[in-house]
TrEMBL record:
<comment type="similarity">
    <text>Belongs to the TUB family.</text>
</comment>
<feature type="region of interest" description="Disordered">
    <location>
        <begin position="1"/>
        <end position="114"/>
    </location>
</feature>
<dbReference type="InterPro" id="IPR005398">
    <property type="entry name" value="Tubby_N"/>
</dbReference>
<keyword id="KW-0963">Cytoplasm</keyword>
<dbReference type="InterPro" id="IPR000007">
    <property type="entry name" value="Tubby_C"/>
</dbReference>
<feature type="compositionally biased region" description="Polar residues">
    <location>
        <begin position="80"/>
        <end position="93"/>
    </location>
</feature>
<feature type="domain" description="Tubby N-terminal">
    <location>
        <begin position="1"/>
        <end position="105"/>
    </location>
</feature>
<dbReference type="GO" id="GO:0005929">
    <property type="term" value="C:cilium"/>
</dbReference>
<dbReference type="GO" id="GO:0061512">
    <property type="term" value="P:protein localization to cilium"/>
</dbReference>
<dbReference type="InterPro" id="IPR025659">
    <property type="entry name" value="Tubby-like_C"/>
</dbReference>
<dbReference type="Pfam" id="PF01167">
    <property type="entry name" value="Tub"/>
</dbReference>
<keyword id="KW-0964">Secreted</keyword>
<feature type="compositionally biased region" description="Acidic residues">
    <location>
        <begin position="64"/>
        <end position="74"/>
    </location>
</feature>
<protein>
    <recommendedName>
        <fullName>Tubby-like protein</fullName>
    </recommendedName>
</protein>
<feature type="domain" description="Tubby C-terminal">
    <location>
        <begin position="123"/>
        <end position="366"/>
    </location>
</feature>
<dbReference type="InterPro" id="IPR018066">
    <property type="entry name" value="Tubby_C_CS"/>
</dbReference>
<dbReference type="GO" id="GO:0005576">
    <property type="term" value="C:extracellular region"/>
</dbReference>
Length: 371
């Protein structure tokens, strides 16, 4: 069946020239209650999502992620893995060799072990836990204005952070091409820390996320399938029917999960097997199609709003939440601005850190070609 757009058509008609996505609901002071509510809702909707993941369905939803000059950022209301205790203010760094454990025995959170960054980056979030992260954008130094470096940290209790991933746009590349690394000092293609990349089409409207495997074009057919690169996600930005100013739709296609809750391996040998091709041909077997949640038009603020439960504090056209149409209350991922160069990025099962970080990088990059 078709889920989604009908319910939102009225809102969409009202799309004025206002394109900020504001945040609504709790301020960061009421965050504890917001977190509790959010956790409760997510617990209930967990079953629905599992069912939804088994089904395939054509789905579409109106939404938007308009361009604005450097209007991206995230992070000031800091809070821990669904802990209902409020952490202190953020900034100290922790060695990545630490285990980011759940805040207290009283919360039934699984232990989030980031000892092996390479393994953690591609491991789906545990069911029932929201992995809360922040992205900082560094524009300092030569070329950094054009080619900033983005750092992803896991948020921990008392404002501490654990480094997870770094990403930077490659120069001299015909299309946008971001390298993602588990070493913040080594962002090179040949480096041992290279863990994945994000590549766009020429228009900058479609993106694919790869792991660090081998490009099938550069290999002989005798090559072991297991060394071919996996596609971990595809992101497609579409203009809305109203032209430039209203909500824009964002579709995210990720590999499905098997009965053991492991990611299905998708290693295309040609164009027809890619995630984007499968999605465009409506061949959604063993893939999951997600969309950004449609913000609701608010007459008082004359803008579209989404409820980030205190995790996002600044309006930005780049703020978004990713959902499955069959279960719109279960937020698979959310991203939003909290300061000039700081953003929060939270993700849930079945997403992993590398997928979520690359999707966030694509939203920084999706430019005028989408207008």
């Amino acid at each position: 069946g078709i889920d989604g757009p009908a319910a939102f058509q009225d809102d969409v008609q009202k799309a004025g020239s206002q394109v900020q996505i504001l945040t609504v609901g709790q301020s960061s002071h009421d965050e504890d209650d917001g977190e509790k509510m959010a956790t409760g809702q997510q617990q209930q909707s967990k079953q629905d999502l599992k069912t939804a993941m088994q089904k395939k369905g054509i789905s579409s939803s109106m939404n938007f992620d308009e361009e604005e000059d450097e209007e991206d950022a995230d992070s000031s209301s800091s809070s821990q893995l669904n802990s209902n205790t409020r952490p202190g203010s953020a900034t100290s760094k922790k060695s990545s060799k630490e285990v980011a454990s759940a805040p207290s025995p009283s919360t039934n959170e699984p232990l989030i072990d980031v000892d092996d960054l390479e393994e953690f980056a591609v491991r789906p979030a545990p069911q029932g836990a929201t992995i809360k992260c922040r992205i900082t954008r560094d524009k300092k130094g030569m070329d950094r204005g054009m080619y900033p470096t983005y750092y992803l940290h896991l948020e921990r209790e008392h404002g501490k952070k654990v480094f997870l991933l770094a990403g930077r746009k490659r120069k001299k590349s015909k299309t946008s091409n971001y390298l993602i690394s588990i070493d913040p000092t080594d962002l090179s293609r040949g480096g041992e820390s290279f863990i994945g990349k994000l590549r766009s089409n020429l228009m900058g409207t479609k993106f694919t996320v790869y792991d660090n495997g081998v490009n099938p074009v550069k290999t002989t057919s005798s090559l072991e399938a297991s060394v071919l690169r996996q596609e971990l996600a595809a992101i497609c930005y579409e203009t809305n029917v109203l032209g430039f100013k209203g909500p824009r739709k964002m579709s995210v296609i990720i590999p499905g999960m098997n009965m053991d809750h492991e990611r299905v391996s998708i290693r295309p040998r040609n164009e027809h097997e890619t995630l984007l091709a499968r999605w465009q041909n409506k061949n959604t077997e063993s893939v999951i199609e997600l969309h950004n949640k449609t913000p609701v038009w608010n007459d008082d603020t004359q803008s579209y709003v989404l409820n980030f439960h205190g995790r996002v504090t600044q309006a930005s056209v780049k703020n978004f939440q990713i959902i499955h149409d069959n279960d719109p209350d279960y937020i698979v991922m959310q991203f939003g601005r909290v300061a000039e160069d700081v953003f929060t990025m939270d993700y849930n099962y079945p997403m992993c850190a590398l997928q979520a970080f690359a999707i966030a990088l694509s939203s920084f990059d999706s430019k005028l070609a989408c207008e």
